[in-house]
Amino acid sequence: MAKDNYLFTSESVSEGHPDKVCDRISDGVVDAFLAADPEARVACETLTTTNRIVLAGEVRGPAPLVDAAGNVDKARIEQIARDSVKDIGYEQDGFHWETASVEVHLHAQSVDIAQGVDAGSGVDTEEGAGDQGIMFGYACRETEILMPAPIFFSHEILRSMADARHSGADKGLGPDSKSQVTLQYENGKPVRATSVVVSTQHGADLSRDDVTAIVMPHIEHVLPDGWMPSADEIYINPTGKFVIGGPDGDCGLTGRKIIVDTYGGAAPHGGGAFSGKDPTKVDRSAAYVARYLAKNVVASGVADKCTIQLAYAIGISKPLSVYVDTHGTGQVDEDKLSTVLQNLVDLTPRGIRTHLGLNRAIYARTAAYGHFGRQPDGDGGFSWEKTDIADAIKGAF
CA Rg, the chain, in Å? Predict the structure, then answer.
């Protein structure tokens, strides 16, 4: 039986965190390929360390990004990496967008993998999934955007700080930061924060008190009235000093912040990362449509909480299972709800991409502050956050 009264914690990391730098670079490569060819294939992994960036993976796309012999335009990929780092704001001796060494080891996609995905070339005559795996989507009524509250507030604190850093309003803060918010739940609902942790990179001339004075207004602005924890449960730069940060302080890799990217631990995760992957990879596209389905279920009013699980096999188009759990909050039969959702949305890999319009250059913006709980953009970004089938779900019952 689920608990009604408890504490729950989620964390977030900023765009300047070493792993997020890698996610941003990898998704920048995805966007470049999709902008040149909506059917391009990309699986790009990035590693960063002190003044060094290494990219590796498999791609399939048009000239000039890839020539007829399968050779990748390394100069173009290098520039994407440098532009990404510059946009984040790294101009430090140990990690600088202009002086960092960039190695590009991208190569042509395996024909064995490609044949399982291409329509008509594998066991299934339809376009198959790019890999096997399970993907989860989740939504709840804890916030207006139907996301769990702890991860929502963790993201918002760091996003507020980043906006102030980019605008110049808060001088002295560096790009690398982390947050952690613990909320108290009563009768299954969040009622206040019991602790907040923020660690942020800063200039060498700032003391811990200086950093605290800069960060506190962002916490106060984000948390609802009456939700602030006691002063002794607010921890800002608890180590006392955070001057060396980003990839100079810690190695970064693509795909290491999958819980930050999703629901902060409030829902299951299938284990697959998102960044650096084109939308034929169901690790990404099926996780997006699972969130879309769960959010529309909750938005429709037939449940207050919903988890969706999808399962796929490489080379097979249809999902092997579609599991729906409304956690005891549902007003309708879950088996029928699963059938309704499958009738409303084609859950084959191509069906997902078509319904959500995923074959577009919309992914660099997802690399920090969560892939879910964002506002849909006019150009198709965050299309999985729309609630445009909520009325149809409600109408089916």
Answer: 22
Q: Is 322 helix (H, G, I), strand (E, B) or coil?
A: strand
Beta-carbon count within 10 A of 328 CB? 10
In this structure, the dihedral spanned by the alpha carbons of residues 291, 296, 299 and 304, taken in order and rounded to 10 degrees, is -60
What span, in angstroms and rounded, lies between the C-alpha atoms of 37 and 62? 7
Which SS3 state, helix, strand or coil, does residue 278 take?
A: coil
Q: Are 29 and 77 in contact (CB under 8 A)?
A: yes
**pLDDT tens digits, 175-202:** 999 999 999 999 999 999 999 999 999 9
pLDDT digits (tens, 9 = 90+) for 108-129: 876 655 555 665 555 555 787 8
Q: Choose among 258, 310, 298: nearest CA to 137.
A: 310
DSSP readout, 348-396? SHHHHHHHHT-SSS--GGGSSS-SSS-PPPTTSTTGGG--TTHHHHHHT
**Residue keyed to tokens 């594998």:** 122
The more confident residue out of 373 and 71 is 373
For the beta sheet containing 305-312, the strands, ordered from the edge strand earlier in sequence to the opposite edge, are 133-140, 305-312, 321-325
Rounded Cα gap, residues 136 and 310, in angstroms: 6
DSSP 3-state assignment of 78? helix
For the chain, what is the mean pLDDT?
94
Q: Are the C-beta atoms of 247 and 49 separated by less than 8 Å?
A: yes
Query: Does the bond joining 319 to the residue before it have cis omega, within 30 degrees of 0?
Result: no
Question: Quick one: which of 144, 146, 143, 111 has its CA closest to 41?
Answer: 111
